[in-house]
Amino acid sequence: GKGGGGGGGGGGSPPDLPPADALGLPLPTEGDPLVADAFRLHSNPGAPKRVVLDFTGHTLRAGTAWGVGANLNGDVPIVTPPYDLDGDPSSFSAGEREAIVSVWRQVSEHFSAWDVDVTTDEPEGGSPDAGDAALVGNGVRVAIGENDGWFENVGGVAFIGGFGEPWAGPVAFVFNQNPVSVALAASHQVGHALGLLHHG
Predict the structure, then answer these.
(1) How do residues 133-155 score in pLDDT, each as one tens digit?
(2) What is the pTM of this model?
(3) Which of 20, 23, 82, 200 has the fewest Cβ atoms surrounding its Cβ within 10 A?
């Protein structure tokens, strides 16, 4: 679960505005030192392959293979809401940022033997479609957020062999919330995207 609180005040007057990160979100004052960079993390910058852990919400365009059979909404965009642990999907609390860093650390460790960058940074392009296009041939986005009802009773889903493929988005999905479960499901789904099957 989430860790508890932390001690109080000290001397001096508070600044006029709380410090904020590049997204304009307030920076937490405790916990993992990487929480301030939770959406700019890279395990291996410059690597030729990428795994993008997307916690901020994602809309996958219509017309991919997800619109055939698996997507119960039909051939329409698939909307993944932002990762949310506190009931407020409009912002990321210090606890949520710590969870994001924890997931990134775990998935980065899973892929540390290979020349791949596990990142929480949005792919270049400035839009979800452009970001997905930037991953064609070299990566996969793992859209991490609640299951919106289009694929029931699973922790995540990916097309086998969909890594870097335009017909797959290239996007995989994780619906778990607990950081350990999210990390395991993310690595599991990336494994499917790379062509791996279940044992047995």
Answers:
(1) 999 999 999 999 987 666 777 88
(2) 0.82
(3) 200
